[in-house]
Amino acid sequence: MSAHPCLDPSVVRWSVPAAERGGRPVLLLLHGYGSDEHDLFGLVPYLPDGFVIASVRAPLAPPWPMPGASWYPIEGLDGRDPREITRAAHAVLAFVQDAVGPAPVGLLGFSQGGAVALQTLRADPDAVSFAVVLAGYAPGGEMPGDAVLAERRPPVFWGRGAADDVIPAHAVDQTAQWLPGHSRLSGRVYPGLTHSISQDELDDVRAFLDARLAEREG
In this structure, is residue 3 part of a structural domain? Predict the structure, then answer.
């Protein structure tokens, strides 16, 4: 088995053709469990067009009959192995190096993709400039970049629904304890929202991403 699974560049959905990507910041979309690269790509009209957006497909197939792809195995609601999430994070980093280039990227992930987004930031803080975590969480354990993140405090947006019953409470609590000490945290808990994304949340994500573009230009 390889050190990490590989992302397939042939199934990536890009918001603009290759000729229009030069010199522009890249936002990578990481979908949730049982989904694929087409799912979060539907958010593109709601996101700032200052970013080149790439929606990738997770490298694993979940157990039948679950459709789509997954970033790491889930054995029951509590079976989320940080080592498997780290393997997925290294797959994302390899894709960034091979298909995006040397400039830091931003990550936007939903559910599993949100956990992988944070783990990728923790694995290599030099490769990721910010993260948007929607209905996701921070995996447990220590990562090589944690001390760097505690010093740098990169921007992170964490949004979740008050009625989300998919992410275990202990994972939410763990994230609430970890993020403030390792990021410049913004975010919101949305009343009545389940394990999904609302228009209010998209508006907040748009404002967060606009701020990242303004920082870049300033």
Answer: no
